[in-house]
Write a structure and sequence with these properties.
The structure is a single chain. With about 300 residues, the protein is an alpha/beta fold. The chain has two domains: about 5-150, HUPs (Rossmann fold, 3-Layer(aba) Sandwich), CATH 3.40.50.620; about 170-280 and about 285-310, 3-Layer(aba) Sandwich (Rossmann fold), CATH 3.40.50.620. About 40% of the residues lie in helices and about 20% in strands. The protein is built from nine helices and 13 strands. It has an eleven-stranded mixed β-sheet, sandwiched between helices. Strands 6-7 form a two-stranded antiparallel sheet. It is elongated and about 70 Å long. The two termini are about 25 Å apart.
Amino acid sequence: MPGNVTVGVDGSPESLAALDWAAAEAVLREVPLRIVHIQDWPIPPAYIEHVETWPSSSAVPESSERFRRYEELLQRAAATAQQSHPGLTVTAENLAGVGLASSALLAEAETPGSVDLLVLGSKGLDSFTGFVIGTTSLPVAAASERPVVLVRSQAPRSGQPEAHTEAATGRLVLGVDLKGAEANEAVLEFGFIEAARRNSHLQILHAWSLPPMYAYAETADPGIGEELAGNIASSLDRLVEPWRQRFPGVSVQTKAVVGAPGAELVYASPTADLLIVGRRKRPLPVGPRLGHVAHAVIHHATSPVAVVPHP
């Protein structure tokens, strides 16, 4: 049973950009949009109201000015989503989180059959400084059981989704690591499905560097680097070929480049509609964490970033 696209809002420009992106994504997925605002502190149970749809049928207690503002925020957000996407099913809910909002969002994502995708805003200072990650976005991206998309205020997805045309429109960039075939499965599946939904071009990028042991060998035989590059390109094509056959309508390009993976993905982000990276779910003694590639991309990419958990 399909779930929904859930987006967190707090009234910031980043969260409103995330709302815009999430609403269009829900239309493409043909699932409801769920808008949530989560308190970062406990509030009295009597003040917890559920907003079914716009407009709200529940009266907000007069004594809770702060809670009234949250309800109005949710109502405005729901109205905006429905006006931009007529026919989209929209619900809005004000939740009370015990502790940090990230804990409540992660609990929502762990509920079976409820959430297909989490969308959050990420604040950026400028194109050089990148993201300022707060107490919500980074922990959720590092620990969620569901894919998480982080959206900057400079990169909303505006208006209705584009109609399907013969020529591919838009561009998605997906980073893969050739070392883990199992890890790539979830990321490739997400990327190909998203490209098919949008009829977008998909670029699959693998960045590599010459192992230190090859440094002296390359001096003696300059062709050894070219040979290794050819082998890596062939391995990348073999990895992607089954997905080409599964999604014959998706325009795909594989690209193996010499460089640091995080940096190369960031360089590719300005012209991408969505940047897709994986995040390993393995338990660690210090708790969930993002790998160095996902961490670099989240902090510095200029496009929306999808973080896909994998084994």
